[in-house]
Amino acid sequence: MESSREHFIFIHKLEPAKANITIKDVARELGIHHVTVSRALRDTGSVKKETRDRIKQKATELGYKPNRLAQNFRNKRSNVLAVVVPDLRPYFFARFVSDFMEIAKEQGYSVMIFQSGEKPEMEKDIINSLMEYRVSGVVASVTKDTLHEHPFDVLKEDNIPFVFFDRAPEDSCAPQVLVDNFKGAYDAVTAMVKTGKKRIAYISTHYQHQIFRDRLAGYKQALKDNNLPFKEELVVQGGFFMKDGADLAQKLMAQEYRPDGILAVRDEIGIGVIKYLKKTGIRVPEDVAVIGFDNDPMGIACEPELTTVQQSIPSMVSGSFELLVGQIKSGMPANHKRLIQPKIIFRGSV
Amino acid sequence: MESSREHFIFIHKLEPAKANITIKDVARELGIHHVTVSRALRDTGSVKKETRDRIKQKATELGYKPNRLAQNFRNKRSNVLAVVVPDLRPYFFARFVSDFMEIAKEQGYSVMIFQSGEKPEMEKDIINSLMEYRVSGVVASVTKDTLHEHPFDVLKEDNIPFVFFDRAPEDSCAPQVLVDNFKGAYDAVTAMVKTGKKRIAYISTHYQHQIFRDRLAGYKQALKDNNLPFKEELVVQGGFFMKDGADLAQKLMAQEYRPDGILAVRDEIGIGVIKYLKKTGIRVPEDVAVIGFDNDPMGIACEPELTTVQQSIPSMVSGSFELLVGQIKSGMPANHKRLIQPKIIFRGSV
DNA sequence: CTGAAAGCGCTAACAT
DNA sequence: ATGTTAGCGCTTTCAG
């Protein structure tokens, strides 16, 4: 078997195969004015039904395709919705984008995706592109470091509506669809307490973003409401992946005050925790219970299956889409905020 | 804690906050012609260095932003690259798109993503949009049912270059970057044989696409080369997910001729297999070895960790990007084909 | 090196 | 119901 092959066969220099058909071409063929064609094709203004039909038929006959570039230029706006995410690879974002594209397409919008890579400078770059492209609207989840800045606010100057989902700058009064992270963590801790756990730890990423602080707050409150002591050493933070979860679990279990329950802010971290615990002979959930966040399908792959705090992606998608399109259609800015209620999916790790 | 909140605060009707600055504005301020501004800003034509500097400074001072809509219209082409995938959610595609966007951005392109949902009609719709938007180029992975049709060929009429990755229509002579699926399956089977396995099964999705048939062919050839009999009943097919893998594994293990090795065409299926086997007390890999395809991080979550056939995504991304941009820059169609060599990542399931 | 003229394809506004 | 006019912001072409 060959290791790598390439075939070089140049056909011919590309050249205008067939002049692009414009409304003028259609008009000429019919002996009418191109403006009438424009009207007929867009079903606006008044055009005699018969004329309209002739036009549409001729248009398809000639293979006319509207020049969106001209349309957008003329209309000063592309009918493109932009989605800005920190990273497209995690299941949560991939799924959000996938679902969002589906609903956007149904409603006649196209979608451009942008990745900030969690880098604020990149985010600013993207926002610049957004304005240059005159997108119709933006749905964004900010970087981990976009805390007190409000880089998206410049979009207001260009009247480009935007909605935050999942992550927003703190104190932003822009429309947003967030998850009730406080409650998610609170409920998760409570669930572990109900099974008799008393020393519950909290593992976070090293990100400083609001959502993680909300989860921490929920964690603390749940401890308090259950008359459990808050122990500084049971709160640790590190990376983003399984490996990090394993490392952090090791750190926790090496301490004198060992946890019997662990709340991880990401499923992937939670899985790493479980893997470490099992490897060292600790039983899950008998000795230590584990709960993650995100309802990543990956959580079903591990043994026991990971109990997780689910953030309903369909709700977030439809919520942010509605908030965005509402602004676009009304021409009004808005500052609705929606809080999505998380739900615990019980599987085997609690 | 409240269950859901909405705040309604309408600020004011959106209105042109500040007229958009155009090159004419910049020119007027400087008392020169807007064409000179255009030239200076694009670093084309000859403009006196001093003039150029003054222009650039004034432009940033005024907050000039090029109107891409006008540029694209005028240039008859948007500088947008399109990526068409069947589904954005599986790790393989999310990762490909993510990496592709990164490299495209570095090179000054924007990216539009489209999802066909594995539906050929949707794919045709998308292709239509592609032409309407006058994208500069397209990278696509076709639907599972795009076998003998060549829907992308119409792009040639509009001189829009395209490249297939991972999945291409059969016998397509368009440029493409595929994985050597035959070899991937061949090597996987061979690896299991080397550990003493003799009754190796093959689990596929119900998709009829070439890539799965190539894998099947590789599987068969490996059996042959190792003097192992090919048993019809050891080849089964079903869905796409863990559950399907478990169901298929059950079916296989219920047969008289039970496998001692299983090759799954997707990691997620392979994980389902492992979960089923363990649940029924069958040891992996001692009793039955399992290998998947894709190198999905999910494979690390299960126990034992899944051995997998990796298709180098960076190679596919850079390969398809090069092939695409090569066509765009040269103005020539091409029909290079690249075959990416897969590599087995040995973990615990073999 | 800079300016003037022209037009891309489409649509809003006005006129008939 | 249809036609006329004008122009979006930019770049290419040609002139100076």
Chain-wise SSE layout:
The structure is a homodimer.
Chain A: H1 23-30, H2 34-42, H3 49-62, H4 68-75, E1 80-85, H5 91-106, E2 110-115, H6 120-132, E3 137-140, H7 154-157, E4 162-165, E5 176-179, H8 181-194, E6 200-205, H9 210-225, E7 235-238, H10 242-254, E8 261-264, H11 267-279, E9 289-293, H12 298-301, E10 307-310, H13 313-330, E11 337-340, E12 343-345
Helix pairs in contact in A: 1-2, 1-3, 5-13, 8-9, 10-11
Chain B binds a DNA duplex (16 and 16 nucleotides) through helix 2 and helix 4.
What's a quick, concise take on this entry?
The structure is a homodimer of 350-residue chains. In chain A, 43% of the residues lie in helices and 15% in strands.
Structural overview:
Chain A contains 13 helices and twelve strands. Chain A has helices spanning 23-30, 34-42, 49-62, 68-75, 91-106, 120-132, 154-157, 181-194, 210-225, 242-254, 267-279, 298-301, 313-330; strands spanning 80-85, 110-115, 137-140, 162-165, 176-179, 200-205, 235-238, 261-264, 289-293, 307-310, 337-340, 343-345. In chain A, helix 1 packs across helix 3 (49-62), helix 8 packs parallel to helix 9 (210-225) and helix 10 packs across helix 11. Chain A is elongated. The interface between A and B is large, with 85 and 85 residues. Chain B binds a DNA duplex (16 and 16 nucleotides) through helix 2 and helix 4.
